[in-house]
Each structure stands twice: as C-alpha cells, then as structure tokens.
Design a protein that fits this description.
This protein has four domains: 1-65 and 161-166, no CATH class; 69-154, no CATH class; 167-254 and 426-442, 3-Layer(aba) Sandwich (Rossmann fold), CATH 3.40.50.150; 282-386, Trna Endonuclease, Chain: A, domain 1, CATH 3.40.1350.10. 25% of the residues lie in helices and 20% in strands. It contains eleven helices and 21 strands. The strands form six sheets. It has a five-stranded mixed beta sheet with strand order 14-15-16-17-20, with helices on both faces. The chain has a four-stranded mixed beta sheet with strand order 1-3-2-10. Helix 5 (212-219) runs parallel beside helix 6 (231-244), helix 7 (259-268) crosses helix 8 (270-280) and helix 9 runs parallel beside helix 10. The two termini are 24 Å apart. The structure holds S-adenosylmethionine. The site of S-adenosylmethionine (SAM) has 17 residues, from helix 5.
Length: 442
Amino acid sequence: MHCDATASHYLKILLDAVFGPECYRNEITWKRTTTHNDSRTWSRVADTILFYTKGKEFRWNTPRDSYSAGYVESRYKGDDGDGRKYMLDNMTSPNPRPNMMYEWKGFPFPPLGWRYSKETMAKLDAGNRIWYPKLPDGSFDTGKRPRVKKYLTEMSGGVIGEVWTDISPVNSQATERLGYPTQKPLPLLERIIKASSNEGDTILDPFCGCGTAVHAAEKLNRNWIGIDITHLAISLIERRLRDAFSDVEFDVHGTPKDYEGARDLALRDKYQFQWWAVSLVDAVPFGGKKRGADSGIDGWRYMAAGRTTVAKCIVSVKGGETVNVQMMRDLRGVIEREKAEAGLLVTLTAPTRPMQEEASKAGFFDSPFGGKRHPRLQIMTIEALLSGAKPDLPPLSIEAGFRRAEREDRAVQNQGSLLAHAGLDAPIATAPARGGGRQRKP
Ligand SMILES: C[S@@+](CC[C@H](N)C(=O)[O-])C[C@H]1O[C@@H](n2cnc3c(N)ncnc32)[C@H](O)[C@@H]1O
C-alpha cells in the first residue's frame, strides 16, 4: 500500500484490521524527491509503502543492492595482481569463544578468540586468503592482527533496508513518463515484485492506474491482473504494454459506465461494443455472440404480443463517430425484409435531424395490449440509455429473450463489508498464465 505521509498512519490501522497486526512487516520510506522549501515544515520528500503479507508463510527473496562505484573504489583496494580486488576484514570473534583461542603462526589470539576454527584458518591460509601484517624486513609483525581477504566478485551486495533513497521519481523529462499524474518509477515496482514473487507467480494491482506494476510484472515474467475504475487508465496500459512488449498477450474485461467508456470500448473491440449496446436495450445478440456478417441486424428484442406470440424489434448498433440518414433507411429496409414490428438504432453519436425525420416517417405500430401505439423506427443514444432512458416498445417476452436466473433462497442474510472494494464491473486486464501451460484466462 503506497501513500503519502498524510494518510499512512490511518491506512496502517485499516491494514492491521484487514491483514492482522501480526502480518505487518515494514513501513518503507521512499525518498522520492529532493528537498524544497515547504512552508514552516521539514521539507516533505518521502512517501510511505506499507508492507503486509497474507499470512506467516510468504515469498521472500532477500533484496540486495549492487555496490556503488565510489564504495567499491574506497573499500576494495587490495590487489594480488590476479585481477581480483579485495577488502580486508576483521578475523576476531565478536563473542567469547574458548575453542577459538589458539596461537596462529606466532600471532596471539585476540581477547575473545578468532572468528574461525583452526581448520578453517588453515584452509584460508592455503588459499592465500589471509593477509599478514609485516615488518620492514618482511617478517610477520605479530604485534598487529592478520585479516581475511573478501573478494568483490564473491559479494552479492548489501541487504536493502526499509529506507530507500536510490530510486528517483519519474521526472518531467523521463522517457518513461506517460503523463499520468501518479505514475511510479518502474524500478520501485520491480524491487517490490522481485522481493515478493518468483517468475510465474501472479501480481494483482487492483488500482492499477497507468500500469507501472503490471508493466514491471510483465517485464519480470510474472502473470498479472490489473483493475482500474477508469477506461482511460486501461487504454493507457494497453498502449503502454503493446509499445513496451511486442509479443504481450492479455484480455480486457469491463463494462462502460459513461460515454467515454463506451467510446473506448467501441474503438477497442467493435463486437464487444455491439453486444454490450444490444444488452442495454434488453435485446439478444444476433446469432448469439458469433462474429461475422450481420445483414444489418445486431440484435433482436422479443416483445410480448399476446399470450403465445412475440413481436420482434430489430436492433442495429452504430459505434462510429459519424451517423447518417442512410443508416435509418437501411434499418427500415431490414424491418420490411424480416417482417419485424419495429427497428431500433442505437448510436454512440447523436443522430442528425434527417435521421430523426426518417424515423418519424416510418409511423407507428399498435400495441398488442391495446390502446398504446409505439414508433416503428426509433433512435437511442448510448448516453440516453446509460442515464436510464428506455425505448418506447411493448414489454419483453421473457420466453423468447434471455432466460432469467432462478431466484436463490438465502438462509442467512449477507453482512455488508466494512471496506468497499472495486466492483467487478471495473475494467480488468489480465495477462495469460505463464509456466505450467499457457492458459488463456487465469
Ligand atoms: C495512484 S493510482 C495507482 C497507481 C498504480 N498502482 C501503479 O503502480 O502505477 C490509483 C488508481 O486507482 C483507481 N481507482 C480509484 N478508485 C478505484 C476503484 N474503486 N476501483 C478500481 N480502481 C480505482 C484510479 O482510477 C487511479 O487510476
């Protein structure tokens, strides 16, 4: 959980409630900027990352830092001419160890003993891994202590602590910058993902924003699932991933909630958009969800026309940026060809005046239930449907349309949860599973 210092202490309490205080591991301070003159406060330079695990057992790959060039230069000065740099380290025991108290090559043991047993000492010596202090004549200076050689090539870097000062923010000039306000640097997410997962594991970012976590996961050969409430974020991630990885594979799921979302879906996948738009007017997609030539019909809306008969309305969906009167004429032709009672054009873009005139020319049909008349040709925009408008048509015939789910008997009422989380209709992007077979949907 990444946040700034204004929220981290409240969120920590919430996370304790969710995961349990025993699953709290670290509060990481990430220095994300240089100091600036904040008014009458210590300059705010850091964010907080709260690290919790689900239980006592968890994946942990000890994160290590590579040594900086300056550190190597100042510490690894030893050189025996074999191309390997080394530093000298203490050989004295930190605690009293009576069995390590022996004289070594004329050197008396330190007050607490040596760090190594006599056998290990002999092996180190045979491998030329002990440095002996010498007098000007070349003999051992037993008034000083021998030291052990530690070769740079054998060191795996320092363990990384909970204060991170080595990861810069995404600055305004960075090539990685996408323009998303809260974009995180890739190395930050890579460090977290590497520490807590292995290749083939699955990373979930339920607030994935511009997708730095999923990008890092893809890069590190993890499976991933990203969720965000905005289509903007999802389309940004799609582009980002396709730009970054030529062979990336993933699915996008989600239901538009507004014009922008609908437009995004129409651009992303014409057929998904049609099926979704058809469902908004309680119609059934033409020929199920099979793709292909549609002969001007995207869906059928089946309406009750008496006890046993149904009336049909043909639904045609237009997801483009422009609409024209020819579309209405075509739909009118399809109604006549199919002997349907009505036609409904669902458009993303507002209809033109000639389209509306064409609709009114088509006249009305009588309701099978008497009294009421309904327009034969209607146009509805996605925006109107999303704000609750309904087509002017007779009631649905349940038998001919989609079947309804059976009602469930619930013995115990579900208790509402305290913490709201992203609804499943937030768009979700998932990468196919890696390792153990290429499943399409994890
Ligand atoms: C700070 S950004 C996330 C950054 C991201 N985790 C990363 O590593 O780059 C927060 C995101 O949460 C999204 N969001 C807010 N409420 C949400 C909700 N209820 N469900 C899903 N996403 C939500 C926002 O649209 C925003 O893109």
